[in-house]
Design a protein that fits this description.
This protein has 319 residues and is α/β, with parallel strands linked by helices. The protein is built from 11 helices and 8 strands.
């Protein structure tokens, strides 16, 4: 069946009729959408809307993550014909997942970008869908959290990252990928006591009450111990997951702006995400994939897998 479908399916981003199910379109051809889902702005009946925010003007080192959404979509074509391994169910057959396209913005007017992101993600939430966002640098997560908190109240945050992103910054107009969590906590959109940062391996003494599970502790104590702590912290309330690809060691994800050695292995990240099954996930993102430094495409592939895991995680409680 799959081989027969592969002979006939093309441009599923525009031609697919059933929004659910796998796609057997050849990975190397056709119009690119995330997991060969349908491109649409119609969110009626949609469970998960994947959207790109190709913004990287807030980076502190190497730019290039504006090309992340496109690269992640292209890499996801390798996953469109299989249910994600290790979950025991197929979220693409259970959920209606669409590609909502990228957010439009004026690249020369950075001050307006956060408000545009908040409105863009707010429209997804108001339609009853969960946002899975492809970045873009990590500054995009702050306005996403604002949109979520405006509808659900302060959320528990699970942050996968090499950096805590809690550098002090009280300038409301300044945009910086290293300060998003500081501002989110100061604004009250994130509950720090129920939040955790996983994979940290850079120093920042002020974590603002967020629990740190640094990369050495995950290596030393194991994934199961980390999961026990994460679950105890986030409890049963609404949870948002943000995954900075530099949480992974550069051996697994070299294509990022601020790589740091000693990070998580890809198998650890996969086990951690799958081990979160059952949390009340309300949305998530994968950020900081920077294709200019991703010579083998491994980072984009990792980013596509993370986004797929977020979809599977969302669907777990809806089986």
């Amino acid at each position: 069946m799959a081989l027969e479908d592969a002979k006939n399916q093309v441009d599923q981003a525009f031609t697919r009729e059933d929004p659910r199910g796998l796609s057997f379109e050849s990975a190397f051809g056709g119009a690119t959408s995330f997991l060969r889902r349908r491109y649409t702005k119609d969110l009626a009946g949609v469970d998960v809307a994947v959207t790109g925010i190709p913004f990287d003007q807030a980076v502190t080192h190497r730019p290039g993550t504006r090309f992340g959404p496109r690269a992640i979509r292209e890499a996801s074509a390798l996953q469109a014909f299989d249910a994600p391994y290790g979950w025991g169910y197929d979220p693409l057959s259970l959920l209606t997942v669409v590609d909502y396209g990228d957010m439009a913005f004026d690249y020369a007017n950075t001050r307006e970008v956060p408000a545009r992101i908040e409105a863009h993600v707010g429209a997804i939430l108001d339609a009853g869908a969960a946002p899975v966002t492809l970045g873009g640098d990590h500054s995009i997560t702050l306005p996403i959290l604002r949109a979520v908190a405006a509808r659900r109240g302060p959320v528990a945050l699970i942050q996968f990252d090499a950096h805590s992103d809690t550098w002090a910054d009280d300038d409301p107009d300044r945009i910086d990928h290293g300060t998003f969590l500081y501002k989110a906590i100061r604004e009250g959109v994130v509950n720090p006591e129920a939040s955790v940062s996983v994979g940290i391996r850079t120093d920042n003494p002020d974590t603002l009450g967020v629990t740190i599970l640094d990369a050495p502790s995950v290596h030393r104590d194991g994934v199961d111990t980390a999961l026990d702590r994460i679950r105890a912290l986030v409890g049963g309330g609404p949870v948002y997951v943000t995954f900075d690809i530099d949480a992974l060691d550069p051996a697994f994800a070299p294509g990022t702006g601020t790589p740091v050695w000693g990070g998580l292995a890809s198998w650890q990240a996969a086990a951690l995400l799958r081990g979160l099954a059952g949390i009340d996930l309300i949305g998530g993102d994968v950020v900081e994939v920077s294709p200019p430094y991703d010579t083998t495409g491994a980072t984009a592939i990792a980013g596509a897998h993370v986004a797929m895991e977020l979809i599977a995680l969302y669907g777990w409680t809806r089986r």
